[in-house]
Design brief:
Layout: E1 6-10, H1 15-26, E2 30-35, H2 38-50, E3 54-59, H3 65-79, E4 84-87
Parallel strand pairs: 1-2, 1-4, 2-3
């Protein structure tokens, strides 16, 4: 087992989530960052890798259970386990209903 913790951070693209990602990267953690904006997520993952961390971005919307489940599964597939979850994503108002086409 790797000596580096595996960390999943929701809401990682701004604010506390981003600060947590940068702090974990300085400790060489293996990090999966998530958020809804793909380009910003990819940029953050690249920044974390430049700090010496193994990092990946997974697009996710925590308002939807399936999206969260996929996020966790992708983290475990990538790193073999999950040690720490930082749940920093926030939403306002009612959650949108998934379309049933």
């Amino acid at each position: 087992m790797s000596e580096h913790p595996v960390v999943l951070i929701t809401g990682a693209l701004t604010g506390i989530g981003r600060a947590a990602a940068l702090a974990f990267a300085e400790q060489r953690a293996h990090i999966v960052v998530s958020g809804r904006r793909v380009e910003e997520g990819r940029q953050l993952a690249s920044e974390l890798r430049a700090l010496g961390s193994e990092a990946e971005f997974v697009q996710a919307d925590v308002r939807f259970e399936d999206s969260v489940r996929n996020l966790i599964e992708r983290t475990v597939e990538r790193f073999g386990r999950l040690d720490v979850a930082v749940n920093s994503a926030g939403t306002e108002g009612a959650s949108p209903r998934p379309s049933r086409n």
